[in-house]
Structures are given as C-alpha cells and as structure tokens.
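Interim report to the steering committee. The following record documents the input for 4Fe-4S dicluster domain-containing protein (207 residues).
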Amino acid sequence: MSAYQATRASEHSSPASQRKYALLHDENRCIGCDACTQACREVNQVPEGVSRLEIVRTGPHGEYPNQTYHFERQSCQHCENAPCVNVCPTGAAYKDPQTGIIKVDEWKCVGCLYCIAACPYKVRFIHPVTRAADKCDFCEQTRLSKGELPACVTSCPTQALVFGDLLDTQSGVYQLVRTQPVSRDKESLGTSPKLFKIRAAKGEVIL
C-alpha cells in the first residue's frame, strides 16, 4: 500500500499512551484547491472571519508558459516544546500526553492572548463565539476520537497530506519523514514542530 493512501487513524498505531501524531504536507502534490480548508471549516464549525488552516499561494514563478505556484500550509504545528503552552497562565493550553496534540480547554481560557502572542507561527485566534483561544487540533474531537483521519487529509484530492503516528514504524508519515527530504518551519527556535513539509521542487520557498 502506498504511503499516500489513507487509513483509519486507529490502524497501525502505538498504544494510546505512546502516540505522537504528526502531519506531512507534500507541496509538490498540493494544487491549492482549498478543499482542505473548506473541509476543516465544515467539520469543525469554524466561523467565517477566522480559520484553523490556510493554504498560502505565492507566484507565479518562472517565465510564461513555464510558470509555477508555491502552496504552503499554515496551521498549528503541534510543537513538542510549545511556546503557547509555556505561557498560558491557566493551563488552558496543554499538550495531550496520550497523543502529543496541543489542545485548548475552552472553559479554562480567559482570553488573555498570551498564547497568541507567544506562537511563532501566528496560527492561533480567539473564537468569536466561545471567546476562547482556538486552532487546529487534528480534528481530535470531531474525527480522531471516532478513529477517523482529519478532515483535511480525507478531502485532499491529490493526497498531498499524510497523517499518522511517528512512533508507529508502519505508518506512512513515519516512513516519509525518514526517507524523504522533509523540513519544518522555524526549527531553530527549538519548538520541534510536528508539521513536516516536502518543499516544492520549483518556486519560492517561504520559511
């Protein structure tokens, strides 16, 4: 089975206490169709005006007719050493010890904006309805808890997104991270993000 073929999130995974979920975005496969962003919005009921996920397009690059665009995913990086967690005064932002997912307890959030200021990736926002900090959680509440893959992964028509457990040696994300030239944004900060990218072979690379 190809590493790009989707499987249920519960398959080939480590024991619940040892999972380390991660996502890989292959920019060479991404066509910028925004199917992922729309699926995320619908499944997680994200209001207009804010977004858990964005695909940023730059270009065109090169000379006509050989022009290319670069599509980059911007969303929560689910850092191993998350600045948002470190600065949260109430414990509302935390790393789930069973999955490694960075989560938010809405009822604990006081809207102080510390996490938003601390996030070097600028992907957090205040939800206009709950008034709590919000962001991508890999669809933990809406899909992962049911053994399903994140909405962005299943909606991608080109299989540019691969999700899985980094502790599972049989998972597609594990194999790709170890065999492909992947990179992560702002690694020098020591955040150890779990959003990996296969950079576009052509076009500008935005770091």
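DSSP finds five helices and ten strands in the chain. The committee is asked to note this result when reviewing the revised timeline.
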